[in-house]
Amino acid sequence: MLIMDIAIVDKSELSSLRLGSIVSGIKGVNTIIQILHPGTLLEILNKTKPAVIIYDLNSNGQNNLPDLQKIRELLPNTTIIALTSYSPEQYRRKCKEMGIIHCLDKINEFERIPEIITELRTKMLKQ
After folding, report:
1. pLDDT in tens, 37-53
2. Domain locations along the chain
3. Maximum pairwise Cα distance, the chain
4. Residues 6 or more apart whose Cβ sits within 8 Å of residue 111
5. What stretches in the chain show pLDDT beneath 70?
């Protein structure tokens, strides 16, 4: 059985708890790491090396694409699901340039997260 660790990076505790609740019911999810303070982000991710990172691009009211680029460089094989509530098409293009294929509208596409994680787990089980 494949066990996956998932990191949730979101400054909003309410949003982070909601995401944690959504992913906790997915088969094979072992640990949910909630990171509310971006100052320790890279250190925690480097230690835990989660299979999936759910990252709110606008969690502190600013564009976090530079941090996302650092995460991509640190963990090139980790699946990143970027969330934004601002101009999703613009962010999708920028994420795609970084090799991040999952950039979701935080308001309207939240329900796709379990589907993406389940598909990833199925793909990993086949390898």
Report:
1. 777 889 999 999 999 99
2. 65-81+95-119
3. 39
4. none
5. 1, 59-63
